[in-house]
């Protein structure tokens, strides 16, 4: 780091520190969301109504064009060769046979790849998207078993796939760490997440644990997981002169474009990334080597390139969730009051990335306790960079914490729902901040009633149906509320032949199947006072202003904040345009909102003028505004989270050890639900992932050589229809007064808590406590 960079970083840190101290003390009205959005009270328009996905019909008809379906003239197809050692050098790479194979247009290796800068790593700046800070195919070094070492380009995919099999590599291996035991022996580092240490200590938790009359203290283990979206990662890439266009499947078009511009020394506006549809992402559809390799190869051969990873390619080159070992210890009084809450452990990373599993984040605000000791430490292994995946941190953190609470409930002889409610905090127990909205007790009570929790027998192994043992379990679900900086929206209000007046709303956001395009149109049409059909939404294109990550379950809030800001700017502009002859003359923008095809005074809706009338008088046909969302200071002023309670029933076979989940209910408190149809689907999808995490999913990592051994859906097991029961989902629908639209994220909370609820139900069914995921049948026999 240069002196200038260090000075900048120090100044930023000081600023950050000052903000962290001052923002909590600031009056609410200075904070975004501090004066609640008037639309939260009205809840008009389609908000809260089940609206079908706008992209649904296109997808069903096969008319939605995905990243690797863009047809470009003169396009060549890419296939990758992957290193087979975890660390070392390539000493020879024989490409002659491949180059001579039918249809081959070129082979790119480190010897002929264009010179490129390493990608800026995610988290190092708002526009950085790289998964790691490693150079991409720039030298003979191998950093993980599976690293791409050659790109074959051919006239057809089949020709490329054949030619890649003809490439021979020889290596000079170097010492590497591929076993967990060795990694631990080499030392632990303090875990950092988004520039903050993963550590909290309040009181002397170890001492208070020792003196507590009741206690549990156990270690829980979670394995590696890989991303298995239906749509494989891939991109169609072309250079147009010195400009680059990438049709990609990605969760961050703008940051990806900026990062790739940095890789090729281009100006940001020279790179355009589009991503109209994403066939599932879950954190892993971001920037990996294949987009950079595809762009480099396209430059090398002077033709557009389609690079579509195989399923194996996704395992070799796209990181997943890393493994954790977590200790949870709780000391309690006889009435269940927590004296000490300890949640510590390790997460594995590589020397080249910055993404530990931050498994204590949910614990920080989950329960009240007299003392806390929370920490994540990291160890280093030579492997592919891991990344955020399906509620990073909380998925695995809630498995450990919520299993431990169940174990404590057994020790105490207190019902586990009751035990949780008895330790409900009245403010955030580690930050001290007030909760913006927390109705988790309601979620617990209504979930328990609907599920029939009172039918449960607390004594384990007491219910049987033939050779099946039956048990019930529950756990808390939690995921933080986020709204990341950088979001913007552009609104074009315009005359329109069908509706008279319509709007185009553009956000640099993403549709991964969760319903973003639809919800954005609902939110924007409500705000603009226009019919749903009169609002066209464009997204998934880096030429749109702003940067919105489809991640951290924050996209809807980020879009909401941006649309609110752009709408405010639009109102101001329209008032100017309306002039002195308008009924609204003399009012300021904050006194006016949109309503029924025009502007109206907020507290006197009769005082109004239609958009058409304003346009007529001003003799204009359209108005365009682009505006950035307010800085997300609310996150420093309140403790903000989505909450939920998961209940399930399992049947464990006494002969085979097989577990079937027979009933499952998620009861959520996630603010206002904007679109119940897409939200329900999000919750259910998350719960299904949770079933996979509990019972099946595990990346098999060969500790001798760091190679992933099950890179296919035949060997990496995930739930199929037969594994999934009816999933019941309910919610409180209580708006958070301090978020855009009163909503919280619903994307990732669904997976959280599920693995613990299932493990707890398995204990209730069998009396066996499994602390090591996945709970496969061998562990129950
Ligand atoms: Mo989520 S794993 O942050 O896309």
State the main characteristics.
781 residues; alpha+beta; 7-stranded mixed β-sheet; 6-stranded mixed β-sheet; 32 strands; 27% helix; 25% strand; binds dioxothiomolybdenum(VI) ion
Overview of the molecule:
By secondary structure, this protein is an alpha+beta fold. Strands 3-5-1-15-12-13-14 form a 7-stranded mixed β-sheet, with helices on both faces. Helix 12 runs parallel beside helix 20 and helix 19 crosses helix 20. Bound molecules: dioxothiomolybdenum(VI) ion (MOS).
Main sheet, how many strands, which sense, barrel? 7 strands, mixed
Number of helices: 20
Rounded mean pLDDT is: 96
Strand content: 25-35%
- Strand order in the sheet with the most strands: 3-5-1-15-12-13-14
What small ligands are held by the chains? dioxothiomolybdenum(VI) ion
Secondary structure class reads alpha+beta
Oligomer: single chain
What Rg is obtained from the alpha carbons, in whole angstroms? 27 Å
**How many beta-strand runs?**
32
Q: Low-confidence runs (pLDDT<50, min 5 residues)?
A: none
Shape: globular
Query: Level of helix content?
Result: 25-40%
Task: Give the termini separation.
Answer: 55 Å
SSE layout:
Layout: H1 3-22, H2 38-42, H3 56-61, E1 76-82, E2 88-94, H4 96-100, E3 104-108, E4 141-142, E5 148-154, H5 157-164, E6 168-173, H6 180-185, E7 189-190, E8 192-193, E9 196-197, E10 199-202, H7 205-211, E11 214-222, E12 234-240, E13 243-248, H8 253-263, E14 271-274, H9 289-301, E15 305-308, H10 311-317, E16 324-332, E17 338-349, H11 361-364, E18 371-380, H12 394-412, H13 416-422, H14 440-451, E19 463-465, E20 468-480, E21 488-496, E22 500-506, H15 516-528, E23 535-538, H16 555-578, E24 592-595, E25 598-601, E26 604-610, H17 611-618, E27 622-628, H18 634-637, E28 641-653, E29 659-669, H19 676-695, E30 701-702, E31 707-708, E32 727-731, H20 754-766
Bound molecules: dioxothiomolybdenum(VI) ion (MOS).
Residues 282-283, 388-390, 392, 551-552, 748 line the site of dioxothiomolybdenum(VI) ion.
């Amino acid at each position: 780091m240069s002196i200038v960079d260090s000075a900048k970083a120090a100044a930023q840190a000081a600023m950050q520190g000052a903000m962290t101290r001052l923002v909590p003390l600031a009056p609410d009205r200075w904070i975004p969301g501090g004066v609640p959005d008037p639309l939260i009270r009205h809840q008009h328009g389609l908000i809260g109504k089940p609206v079908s996905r706008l992209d649904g019909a296109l997808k069903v008809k096969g008319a939605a064009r995905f990243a690797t379906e863009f047809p470009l003239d003169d396009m060549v197809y890419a296939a990758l060769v992957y290193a087979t050692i975890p660390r070392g050098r390539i000493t020879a790479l024989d490409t002659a046979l491949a180059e001579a194979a039918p249809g081959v247009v070129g082979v790119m290796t480190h010897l002929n790849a264009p010179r490129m800068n390493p990608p800026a790593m995610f988290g190092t700046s708002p526009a950085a998207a790289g998964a790691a800070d490693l150079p991409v195919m720039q030298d003979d070094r191998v950093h993980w078993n599976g690293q791409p070492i050659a790109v074959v380009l051919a006239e057809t995919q089949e020709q490329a796939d054949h030619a890649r099999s003809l490439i021979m590599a020889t290596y000079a291996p170097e010492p590497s760490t591929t076993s967990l035991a060795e990694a631990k022996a080499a030392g632990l580092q303090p875990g950092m997440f988004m520039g903050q240490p993963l550590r909290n200590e309040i009181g002397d938790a170890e001492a208070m644990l020792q003196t507590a009359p009741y206690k549990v203290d156990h270690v829980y283990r979670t394995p590696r997981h890989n991303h298995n979206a239906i749509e494989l990662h891939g991109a169609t890439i072309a250079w147009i002169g010195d400009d680059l266009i990438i049709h990609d499947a990605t969760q961050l078009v703008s940051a990806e474009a900026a990062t790739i511009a940095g890789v090729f020394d281009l100006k940001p506006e020279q790179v355009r990334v589009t991503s109209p549809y994403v066939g599932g992402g879950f954190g892993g559809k971001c920037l990996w080597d294949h987009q950079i390799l595809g762009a480099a190869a396209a430059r090398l051969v002077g033709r557009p390139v389609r690079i579509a990873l195989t399923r194996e390619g996704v395992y070799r080159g796209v990181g997943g969730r890393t493994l954790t070992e977590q200790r949870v210890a709780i000391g309690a009084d006889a009435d269940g009051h927590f004296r000490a809450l300890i949640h510590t452990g390790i997460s594995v990373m590589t020397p080249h990335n910055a993404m530990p599993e931050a498994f204590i984040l949910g614990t920080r605000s989950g329960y009240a306790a007299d003392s806390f000791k929370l920490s994540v430490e990291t160890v280093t292994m030579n492997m592919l960079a891991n990344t955020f995946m399906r509620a990073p941190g909380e998925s695995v953190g809630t498995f450990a914490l919520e299993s431990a609470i169940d174990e404590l409930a057994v020790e105490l002889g207190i019902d586990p729902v009751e035990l949780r409610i008895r330790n409900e905090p009245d403010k955030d127990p580690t930050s001290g901040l007030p909760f913006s909205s927390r109705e988790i007790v309601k979620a617990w009570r209504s979930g328990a009633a609907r599920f029939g929790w009172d039918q449960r027998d607390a004594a384990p192994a007491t219910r049987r149906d033939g050779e099946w043992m039956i048990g019930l379990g529950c756990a808390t679900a939690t995921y933080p509320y986020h709204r990341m900086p950088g979001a913007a929206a552009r609104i074009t209000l315009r005359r329109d032949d069908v509706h008279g007046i319509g709007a185009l709303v553009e956000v640099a956001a993403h549709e991964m199947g969760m319903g973003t395009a639809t919800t954005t149109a609902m939110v924007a049409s409500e705000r603009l006072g226009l019919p749903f059909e009169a609002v066209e939404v464009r997204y998934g294109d880096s030429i749109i202003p702003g940067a919105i990550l489809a991640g951290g379950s924050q996209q809807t809030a980020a879009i909401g904040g941006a649309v609110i800001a752009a709408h405010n700017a639009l109102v101001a502009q329209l008032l100017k345009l309306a002039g002195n002859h308008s009924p609204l003359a003399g009012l300021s923008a904050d006194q006016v909102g949109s309503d029924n095809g025009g502007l109206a005074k907020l507290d006197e809706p009769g005082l109004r003028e239609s958009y058409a009338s304003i346009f007529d008088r001003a003799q204009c046909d359209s108005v365009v505004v682009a505006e950035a969302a307010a800085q997300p200071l609310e996150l420093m002023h309140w403790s903000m989270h989505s909450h939920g309670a998961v209940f399930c029933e399992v049947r464990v076979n006494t002969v085979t050890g097989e577990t079937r989940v027979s009933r499952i209910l998620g009861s959520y408190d996630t603010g206002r639900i904007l679109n119940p149809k897409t939200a329900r689907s999000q919750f259910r999808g998350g719960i299904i992932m949770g079933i996979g995490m509990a019972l099946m999913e595990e990346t098999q990592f060969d500790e001798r050589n760091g190679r992933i051994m099950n890179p296919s859906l035949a060997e990496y097991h995930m739930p199929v229809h037969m594994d999934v029961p009816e999933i019941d989902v309910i919610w409180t629908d209580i708006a958070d007064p301090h978020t855009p639209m009163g909503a919280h994220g619903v994307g990732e909370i669904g997976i959280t808590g599920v693995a613990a609820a299932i493990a707890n139900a398995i204990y209730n069914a069998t009396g066996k406590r499994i602390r090591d995921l996945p709970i496969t049948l061998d562990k129950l026999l």
